[in-house]
Amino acid sequence: MPIRPCIFSDEVAPDFEEAVRLAAAAGAEGLELRGRLFGKSIGQIDAADVERIRQVCARHGVRVAVIGSPVGKCSMDSPEEMREHQRLFGRMVQLAHAFETPLIRGFALWRPDRDRATDHLRPDLEQYLPRVREFLAPIAEQAGREGVRFCLETEGACLVGTCGEARRVMEALGNPPALGVTWDVNNGLSCGESPYPEGYALIRDRVYHLHVKPNPQQSLATVGESALTYEQILTLLKRDGYDAWASIEHWGTSDEMLKGLRELVPVLARVNAASA
C-alpha cells in the first residue's frame, strides 16, 4: 500500500465540511481529526457527529486516517488528570473503531519544566520513567486488546520528544506492538536529535504515523534547517515497509496548509512509484 497524504482538518478551515472540501481538492486522501468538529473537539463528539463526519468524508472522497487525540498531554503531578486521560483513551478507541482506523496519536505526559527556554534542554527521562510507565501501561494494554495503535508523538513539550526517548519508553513497557511512534521529524530536530541516521535507527520498526512540517522557508524541501529532505525521509520509510499516512501540520494559514499538502502529494507519488 502506498504512503498516503493526510492533513489536520482543523488547520484548514473553521467549518469542517469546508475544510474537507479544500483538503480533498488539494490532494488529501485522509484526515487527522483533532478539533473544529462542528464546534467540538475530538473528545467531545457524539454518535450523531460521527455520522455527520462520515457523510462529509464520503461526499468528498476522503477518510478519517488518524484520531488526533490529546491523550497524554497531562501533568504527571496530577493522578486524577492522568486517570482522566486514561479514561479518555477508551473513547478514542471507540472513535477509532467507528472511523475504521487503527491509529490514535498521543503523548507521554507533559515535561515538568514546560517554561523551558529551548526543547534542546531535555529533562532526565529516567527520573520520570516510573510515572510514564504507570500512565502508559494500561493504555498500551487496552490498545493491544482492541486492535488499535497508540502512536506516541515526538513532542518537545512532553517527556518523549526524540526518537531516543520514544525507544526508551517502549523498552520500559516491554515493547508492546500496540505502542509505536508518531514521528514528528521537525520536533525531534528541535530537541537536538539528528533525524537520520541517529533518530530513525532507533524507531525504524515502530513508526506508525508521520507528521510533516515546513522549514523556515515554508517548504518541505528540507527538514527544518538540516540538509535532509522529506523525500529522503519518506523514501527510507517506504523502503522499510511503511505504508500509512504523512500528515501536514502547523504550516500556518489555511493557504499555507494547502500549499504544504500540494507540495507533499507529488513527493509521495515519486516515493511510491520508485518502490513499486
SSE arrangement:
Blueprint (H helix, E strand, L loop, with lengths): L3 E5 L7 H10 L4 E4 L13 H14 L2 E6 L10 H20 L4 E4 L18 H22 L2 E5 L9 H10 L6 E6 H6 L4 H9 L3 E6 L17 H10 L5 E4 L5 H21 L2
Parallel strand pairs: 1-2, 1-8, 2-3, 3-4, 4-5, 5-6, 6-7, 7-8
Explain this structure to me?
Helix 1 packs parallel to helix 2, helix 3 runs parallel beside helix 4 (125-146) and helix 5 runs parallel beside helix 7 (195-203). This protein is of the alpha/beta class and 276 residues long. The model has no long low-confidence stretch (mean pLDDT 96). Helix content is 44%, strand content 14%.
Strand adjacency order, main sheet: 1-2-3-4-5-6-7-8
State the distance separating the first and last CA atoms. Answer: 10 Å
Query: Given the C-alpha coordinates, what overall shape results?
Result: globular
Tally the beta strands. 8
Write a concise synopsis of the structure shown.
This protein has 276 residues and is an alpha/beta fold.
Describe the structure using short key phrases:
single chain, alpha/beta, eight-stranded parallel β-barrel, 9 helices, 8 strands
